[in-house]
From TrEMBL:
Homodimer; disulfide-linked. It holds the Pfam family Peptidase_M19. It comes from the Eukaryota. One of its GO terms (molecular function) is metallodipeptidase activity. This is Dipeptidase. The lineage of its organism: Eukaryota, Metazoa, Chordata, Craniata, Vertebrata. It catalyses: an L-aminoacyl-L-amino acid + H2O = 2 an L-alpha-amino acid. GO terms for cellular component: side of membrane. Signal peptide: none annotated. Belongs to the metallo-dependent hydrolases superfamily. Peptidase M19 family. It is a lipid-anchor; GPI-anchor. It is an enzyme of class 3 (hydrolase). Its EC number is 3.4.13.19.
Length: 432
């Protein structure tokens, strides 16, 4: 009986010991897991406070046009319903700089695209100058040193300049520092990744002579050449031609999601050679072609690009307000920390994240400005697009129409009518 009692007690102690060990293991695991989560969250906030994010592409201005008809006086910029971007959420998301797109629909091409672009530039300028938390900047230094949320203006789509280098220069004067060569439509001089619109279809002509002149003029001015939305052939042609680094302001990795808006590995390698930047897009159709879009799938794009070209060519261009449908946990501009935390859990170092968050963009912008300085003695380009390449009913011809006969197709001015008149006068004199 005693034996049984003692044995039973031992059994109870043994049971209690095992249970205690399990309990202890469970609590320890939970604590270490919690510690990991807390320390990753703390590290995320610490890194994002030190290196506030510069995001390469945001379409708030488009939403302000569609939903509010640009009536800023009716909007509280700290809390704007039906959009993904406002000052409160930019602050919560640790955003230190935002490239805002002045975008007008492709259907405005050859119509009132220039006016509409001016109106979009106006609304961005107003947003960024009428709110004390924001600051409109035009230089890399201004962006680097500001303690506010800086705004940089980009034009999204070459149709906005109506094939005019003087129009491009005037956009620069208004503060535009970046331009995507196309949106979802071809321009008369560059090709889009989309064939949705049938405008200006050409064969084997991804960047025309005038397109090269646009790129050179952007290099001369110090404007970032943005290849998001361009066809891969156009992107390759630009990479052959640009003397400054270029960016993909909101594109992801084609190997992870095979959408033509994304960048294939061979182009990534060319981009690295060029010293440029790919800023990863969060839009679900560009990050998860077949998977369910999640923060983790977005992080897969970062891991892949890192594997192919390293972290120095990577940034973030989420495309908020430019599309409907973002992964759960990355729905608006307050959610960037979720991605950074995911990258930390994948062993991305502070140095790598500092680059992704802001330093890579600043380096590229600064290099673009350096190329501008090196070209300071190059005169503004007076290249005009050949009339027949941009012929449309809304284009008024102000110069002598003699220039525009059929031989102008070759880019040469025809003297045939002048010669004919001269021969006629000589003949008349001889007859007299
Ligand atoms: Zn876009």
């Amino acid at each position: 009986m005693t034996f049984y009692y003692q044995h039973h007690r031992m059994f109870i102690y043994k049971e209690a010991g095992i249970r205690g060990a399990w309990k202890q293991w469970f609590i320890c695991s939970l604590l270490s897991l919690l510690h990991g989560v807390i320390s990753e969250t703390t590290r995320t906030l610490d890194i994002m406070t030190k290196y506030p994010l510069i995001d390469g592409h945001n379409d708030l201005a488009l939403r302000l046009r569609i939903i509010y008809n640009n009536k800023l006086n009716l909007i509280n910029m700290h809390n704007i319903p039906h959009v993904a971007t406002d000052i409160s959420r930019l602050t919560a998301g640790h955003v230190g700089g935002q490239v805002f797109a002045a975008y007008v629909l492709c259907t405005a091409q050859d119509k009132d695209a220039v006016r509409l672009t001016l109106e979009q530039i106006d609304v961005i300028r107003r947003v960024c100058t009428e709110n004390p938390e924001l600051e409109l900047v035009t230089t890399a230094e201004g962006m680097r040193n500001s303690t506010k949320i800086t705004c940089l203006i980009s034009v999204e789509g070459g149709h906005s300049i109506d094939s005019s280098l003087p129009a491009l220069r005037m956009f620069y004067q208004l503060g535009v520092r970046s331009m995507a060569l196309t949106h979802t439509c071809n321009t008369p001089w560059a090709e889009s990744s989309s064939s949705f619109y049938r405008f200006y279809q050409r064969k084997n002509n991804s960047l025309t002579e005038f397109g090269k002149a646009v790129v050179k003029e952007m290099n001369r001015l110090g404007m970032l050449v943005d290849l998001s939305h361009s066809s891969w052939e156009t992107a390759r042609a630009v990479l052959n031609h640009s003397t400054a680094p270029v960016i993909f302001s909101h594109s992801s990795a084609y190997t992870i999601c095979n959408n033509t808006r994304n960048v294939p590995d061979d182009l990534l390698l060319r981009l690295k050679e060029n010293g440029g930047l790919i800023m990863v897009n969060f839009y679900r159709s560009f990050v998860a072609c077949s998977n369910i879009p999640t923060v983790s799938v977005v992080a897969d794009h970062f891991d892949h690009i890192k594997l192919v070209i390293g972290t120095e060519s990577i940034g973030i261009g989420a495309d908020f307000d430019g599309a409907q449908g973002f992964p759960e946990g990355l729905e608006d501009v307050s959610k960037y920390p979720a991605l950074i935390e995911e990258l930390i859990s994948r062993n991305w170092s502070e140095e790598e994240l500092a680059g992704v968050l802001r330093l890579n963009f600043l380096r590229v912008f600064q290099k673009v400005e350096k190329v501008r300085d090196e070209m300071q003695y190059t005169l503004p380009s007076e290249v005009e697009i050949p009339f027949l390449e941009a012929n449309n009913s809304c284009r008024v011809i102000l110069t002598n129409p003699v220039r525009y006969d059929s031989s102008y197709r070759n880019g040469k001015t025809s003297l045939v009518p002048v010669r004919a008149i001269a021969w006629f006068i000589i003949l008349l004199i001889q007859l007299l």
